[in-house]
TrEMBL record:
Residues 575-791 form the Histidine kinase domain. The lineage of its organism: Bacteria, Pseudomonadati, Pseudomonadota, Alphaproteobacteria, Sphingomonadales. It is an enzyme of class 2 (transferase). This is histidine kinase. It catalyses: ATP + protein L-histidine = ADP + protein N-phospho-L-histidine. It comes from Sphingomonas humi.
Amino acid sequence: MNAGMGGQGFLSGNGDSAVLLVTVAAVCLVAAVCLAMVALRQLAAARAAMANARFVRDLLDAGPARAMVLHADGSLELDHDLARELAVEPALPSLSALTDGAGGIEAEDVERLQAALGPALLAGNGIELALRLKGSSRLIDVRGRAAPPSLGTGATLLWVSDSSSAAAERGELAARLAGTEQALGALTQLIEAAPFPMWVRDGDLRLALVNRAFVTAVEADNVQSVVDRGIELVEGGGEASARAGAELALRDDRPIERVRPATIGGERRTLRLVDVPLPGGTVAGYAFDIQELEDARSELERYASSQRELSDRMTAGAIQFDPDRTLSFYNRPFAVLSDIEHEWLDERPEFDRLLERMRENHRLPEVRDFPEWKAERRGWFMSAEEVHEEEWMLANGDHLRVVGQPLPDGGLRIIFEDRTEQVRLASARDTLLRVRTATFDNLFEGVAVFASDGRLTLWNRRFGDFWNLDESWLSQHPRVDELVPAFASRLVNPTAAARLRELVRGATAERRAEQGRLSLADGRHFAFAAVPLPDGNALFTMIDVTDSSRIEAALRERAEALEQADQVRTDFVANMSYELRTPLTSIGGFAEMLREGYAGALSGPAKDYVAAILESVARLSRLIDDVLDLTQGAKGVVTLERERVDLAGLIRTVTVQLEPSAQAKQLRFKVQLGDGTGSITGDHRRLRESLEHVLRNAIAYTDKGEVRLVTRGDAGKVEILISDTGRGLAPEHQARVFDRFTRFGEARGETALGLGLPLTRQFIEAHGGTVQLESVEGKGTSVLITLPRASPR
């Protein structure tokens, strides 16, 4: 039992030791793991450092620059590659050692480097110098500043790089920059001197720069005022504004062209604006004045329109084809001539199709082989001939003249001229010429036409017969000077032939027409006339007036005999009137004595007889006075008394005197005196007799109805209208109503002699007035007497 207990304790003691061992082992294991981890980290860091060192070394090796360190003691340590390039040792005692040997740096440049290092390091600034290598044109760039503390206190790190190519590039760039500056200056001067406005807009699309032409166009003082005030070249807002084009150019990244109106120099002009986007969001622009171009374009359009209208107004049809044989132009006359619709022609048909359509409309000549004929016309396109001309006779009788003109570009122009009327007119002209010739040859007149040089150009057969001239000689068109001797041999007075030459010259040169008579030696008489013609020629005509001359002479003798007989009759009537006055005065005197009772008292019937005698004596006296007045008027001798005549009173006196005669025939006698009747200056007796004659005629030739007298007047004249409802006069009698001793119808007394109206017209015209008669047969007659207020002396 004790033994067991002892053994249990030993086991117990061993168990604690095992635990401790395990624990220690575990701690050691953990420590080992930690150390391993640390070692691994350090190994990784070392590897990273090595990799980084190799990377840095690779960067340094691959870099364009090599390093050298200038220590505080003045010694110099160079990169092996740099030392090899400079042909010096990697370690040098001082900077001046860079000049030793065949390689190295020029001494002057080393001194510049030493002089620059001190101040730069004291000021804490870097240096940058270009140094020259000895015996070479190469340059190196040296850039330096204080080295990091790891390289030593007071050390300076210098980086050296080969700048030979960079220097060359810099030189080239400098040259290019100088050229660019020069070109920019020239461009700036060119822009400034440009005759058209130019401008540049900034990122906000405001004007940043303008040229002198812009300033002049907007009538500003200078460029600055334009930029400050933002004066735009064109007016308007929205899409028409000046900035709208710049906005669109920036948005689409392309140049924008616009045409806008602007006011420049007080004139409205048309400008073409161009906005060009530039890098950086700016926009440049320029403007061209295209007013003349627009005017020219408008003029060209008007010209084209007028040419089109002119071609449409032409009588000839015209078409034109492009090189591909499609119709490019036609005018309206062609559409009418070809009987083709405009819509079909507007579709630009091909040449063959057009010919086929014209053939369908019977507007082509009938040919046996149409395809061959069409191919021949198609050959006009490439023909070497300048013009092809043909005459087309159509089935309906139309006649066309066709002219084809090949164009230089391979096209073809064809002109159609309708000569139908010309052909018909030519035929009609030939017919007219034949008719004219036949007419001329059958005229009773002799006709000859002389040219302006006096040469005979046209004549008829009768002209040659009148002068007995040979036709073959006339066919040689002799001059009038050659014809004069032939004329002279046929005339009664040979010297009169020279006058014919003067007549031709006057008609051609002086455009003077003349006429006259010629007497031929054979007893014939001719009337001639020389007339200028519109074409400068002269027409000479002759007509045989032998018979008419004889008749004219007989008529002249008869007229002279009639005049003498009329004069004898007038003288006889005048003498008889004077001779009748003496016995008539005696009869009237003795009758008055019997009436007064000088021969004793008369019985009732005797007194009536004496009264009848006195009345007949008075009427006969009036007739004799009328006859004497009429004969004196025929001789042109009418003597008037000039006195103031009250027309109203005169008319009342005459109407009262004649009213019984009207009442005896149961006629209405109406008198209407207007307010303007007044008075005139004239012969009272002759005016009274004139009114009496007209009223007596009206009463005598009116069986029923009325006789009316109406007056009206103004400041210059008086009109007296006497009308009746009598039988009137036939039209053929009205022209002779004022002739002496002419009467129509049945009337008695003085009216029957036909003296009233002739005497009335004679007296009224002597007063400066007029007498007008209007009559309608079966309806009556009206006589209008017009008298001036003051009669002529």
